[in-house]
């Protein structure tokens, strides 16, 4: 019986890892990350990569523990959360497409891109948050909860490593390549944002 439970917990953990990896999509976030940190010193790039993973981990863990309570207390639906995340990402995508950098316009203070938009909503977006809440509700045993915790941590370790090693690309593509990368990243981010907004609208009207 214990062996069956252990296997079930391992299977549950693997399912959670694969699902969260696909939704968080670190390879997909890489172009946006590189565009955002193109003018940052190499050492700081690595720090921002791990900060982005840490922010995403913090958000996911917070919603795993208190997500349903928070949404219920604020009377906020998942559709509203998704729509808000989409609008935020759309604003950032427009900055990448037009070459405008708001990170240096806030009274000369630097804005940490590891917090927004990288950590959230790009990585820890509505999809990842909702998926985590669902997995928490499905974890009926201590072993399954431990497996889910291990899966969440493992996914974010992969995210940190992916973003960290991706910074080496900037040394190869030079300034013109960075500009091209920023435009491509902006286009991709805009597409993701529009998809989130459309999904949110469909959810509101049950389409």
Produce a short descriptive summary.
This protein is an all-alpha fold and 207 residues long. It has helices at residues 2-24, 26-36, 42-74, 78-98, 114-123, 126-138, 142-166, 170-204.
What do you see in this structure?
The protein has 207 residues and is an all-alpha fold. The protein has one domain (2-204). It contains eight helices and no strands. Helix 3 packs across helix 6. The longest helix has 35 residues, at 170-204. The protein is globular and about 50 Å long. The termini are far apart. The model is unreliable at 103-108 (pLDDT under 50).
Looking at this protein, list some descriptive labels.
83% helix; globular; mainly alpha; 207 residues
Distance between the termini: 44 Å
Strand content range: under 5%
How many domains, in number, for the residues?
1
* Strand elements, count: 0
Q: What is the percent of helical residues? A: over 70%
Order of helices and strands: HHHHHHHH
Q: Helix count?
A: 8
Q: Can you tell me the overall shape?
A: globular
Mean pLDDT score, rounded? 84
Largest sheet: none
Unreliable stretches covering 5 or more consecutive residues: 103-108
- Computed structural class: mainly alpha
Give Rg in angstroms: 18 Å
């Amino acid at each position: 019986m214990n062996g069956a439970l252990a296997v079930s917990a391992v299977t549950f953990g693997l399912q959670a890892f694969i699902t969260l990896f696909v939704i968080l999509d670190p390879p997909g976030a890489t172009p946006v990350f590189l565009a955002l940190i193109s003018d940052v010193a190499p050492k700081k790039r690595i720090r921002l990569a791990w900060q982005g993973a840490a922010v995403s981990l913090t958000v996911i863990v917070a919603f795993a523990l208190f997500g349903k309570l928070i949404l219920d207390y604020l009377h906020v639906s998942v559709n509203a959360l998704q729509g808000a995340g989409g609008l935020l990402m759309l604003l950032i995508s427009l900055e990448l497409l037009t070459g405008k950098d708001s990170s240096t316009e806030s009274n000369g203070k630097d804005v940490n891109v590891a917090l927004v938009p990288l950590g959230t909503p790009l990585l820890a977006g509505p999809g990842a948050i909702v998926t985590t809440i669902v997995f928490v509700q499905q974890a009926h045993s201590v072993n399954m909860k431990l497996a889910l915790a291990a899966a969440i941590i493992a996914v974010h370790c992969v995210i940190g490593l992916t973003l960290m090693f991706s910074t080496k690309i900037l040394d190869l593509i030079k300034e013109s390549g960075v500009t091209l990368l920023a435009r491509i990243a902006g286009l991709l981010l805009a597409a993701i944002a529009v998809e989130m907004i459309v999904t949110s609208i469909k959810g509101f009207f049950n389409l």
